[in-house]
Amino acid sequence: MIAHLVGIVFACVGWLPALLVYLAVKNRSPWTRHHAAEALNFQLTLFIPYVVGAGLFVGFGFFTPDLAWIGAVVIVVVWLDCLVFGTMAAMAAARDAWYRYPIAIHLVK
User: Fold this and answer.
1) Helix 15-25 to helix 30-63 angle, to the nearest 10 degrees?
2) Less Cβ around it within 10 Å: N or C end of the chain?
3) Long-range contacts of 72-75 (CB under 8 A, 24+ apart)
4) b/e burial code for range 25-63 (CB count within 10 A of at least 16 → b)
5) Topology versus the membrane, per the UniProt entry (predicted)?
6) Domain spans of the chain?
């Protein structure tokens, strides 16, 4: 459950704590491995739009400061996505249910 919630707190670098949780619990059971891998995949997927949003924020902020808000909006939308889906996954883990993120690229099996 902690692997799902850690991305909400750490936002852009949420993949790092999720990776640590995955490495720590991957050999415990298929259920814990599944949830840790799902959390890691989701955080790695979200890292891409976080980088794009940061690039837009810095790029627009440097060249056209009036448009820097576009990058900030992208970052906020991605974080809200993380909040909603991370909470849903944590609730599923608390109920001992299997959960798959609907928008995750499955890099880790």
Assistant:
1) 170
2) C
3) 74/49, 75/12, 75/50
4) bbeeeeebbbbbbbbbbbbbbbbebbeebeebbeebbee
5) Multi-pass membrane protein
6) 2-94
- 21 by DSSP, 3-state: which? helix
CA 62/CA 103 separation, integer angstroms:
31
The first and second tokens of residue 88, run together, are: 């849903």
Q: What is the DSSP letter of 26?
A: T
Q: What is the pLDDT of residues 87-98, one digit of tens each?
A: 999 999 999 999
Q: Which of 85, 96, 94 is nearest to 38 (CA)?
A: 85
Residue 78 CB coordination number (10 Å): 20
Task: Please state the separation of Cα 58 from the chain's center in Å.
Answer: 21
Q: Which two tokens stand for residue 43?
A: 């955080």
Select the more confidently predicted residue: 9 or 60: 60
